[in-house]
Write a structure and sequence with these properties.
Elements lengths: L1 H5 L11 H12 L4 H6 L2 H10 L4 H18 L6 H4 L8 E7 L5 E5 L9 H17 L8 E6 L12 H14 L4 E7 L3 H10 L5 H4 L2 E4 L4 H10 L21 H19 L15
GO molecular function: phosphatidylinositol transfer activity
Pfam family, one: CRAL_TRIO
Protein name: CRAL-TRIO domain-containing protein
Length: 282
């Protein structure tokens, strides 16, 4: 039943005139200023339209919900020092390699979960998503997630179903079309029970981006090759690169602090009216 539902077309036909739809959405959401104006670039509006099958009213509602969420949650104001405790084990970090298309890669290691606070986990991930967006190369809008299940077990320190649902909700509702692919690398059978539960909360388009990859499976190896250049991919993920992927918290913290300065400079111009016509980091 689930697989049949996943395969159905949940979205309206794509219009021929994208620019017209973007302009119509801009008119529909009304005048913007400050952070909202800087956030709502044409590229941003297009992502919301794509996420809602080019349905203007649905895209408007989704975008308005995001603007309200960003106004309250203030993800652009989160700094590394506020979430550093969550990151000490390297359970989520930005990789020092990109995928085959030059997209940044977030590596997640559920086996290194170190806290039980759902909100702390969500806030830490939001921070790193914003950081990955900040570091997107010109012309690129998406990132890849590589979830490494080494050391994973269903114990009290691992992500709980509610936290997983909260993460799914935030990423799907407020970061539409930001995920290119989600690789679940070598997940144990015990994880399948959790995935079966949370999969019902995953949007059909996002569900299709999830790839189960097993190191000794030929089909899985081809999936990895299609998304990652094996010459740059670490050996632990089936690649040929022989660099150290061990998480260095001190070095990663330095990188995040530097990026915090860059992020602050970008968003401090909130009061400048950009009219949303040039792409930004969010």
């Amino acid at each position: 039943m689930l697989q049949k539902w996943r395969g159905q077309n949940q979205h309206e036909a794509e219009p021929l005139d994208h620019e017209k739809m973007i302009k119509e959405l801009r008119v529909a959401i009304g005048p913007l200023s400050g952070h909202a104006s800087k956030f709502c670039t044409d590229a941003c509006l297009r992502r919301y339209l794509v996420a809602r099958g080019w349905n203007l009213e649905k895209a408007k509602k989704m975008l308005q919900d995001t603007l309200e969420w960003r106004s309250n949650y203030k993800p652009h104001e989160i700094r590394w020092e506020q979430v550093e405790e969550e990151g000490k084990t390297g359970k989520v970090s930005r990789a020092n390699f990109v995928d085959r298309f030059g997209r940044p890669v977030l590596i997640m290691r559920p086996g290194k979960q170190n806290t039980k606070t759902g909100e702390g986990n969500v806030r830490h991930l939001v921070y790193l998503i914003e950081n990955a967006i900040l570091n997107l190369p010109e012309g690129q809008e998406q990132m890849s997630w590589l979830i490494d299940f080494t050391g994973y077990s269903m114990n009290a320190t691992n992500i709980q179903p509610k936290t997983a649902r909260d993460i799914i909700n935030v990423t799907q509702s407020h970061y539409p079309e930001r995920l290119a692919i989600i690789v679940l690398y070598n997940p144990p059978k015990i994880f399948q029970a959790l995935f079966k539960v949370i999969s019902y909360f995953i949007d059909p388009k996002t569900y299709l981006k999830i790839k189960f990859v097993y190191p000794n499976d030929k089909e899985s190896i081809e999936i990895m090759k299609s998304y990652f250049d094996t010459d740059n991919l670490p050996r632990e993920f089936g690649g040929k690169a022989n660099f150290n992927l061990n998480y260095d918290h001190e070095e990663f913290s330095k990188l995040m602090v530097e990026d915090d300065i860059k992020k602050a400079k970008f968003w401090e111009s909130d009061n400048n009216d950009t009219n949303g016509h040039s792409e930004t980091t969010s």
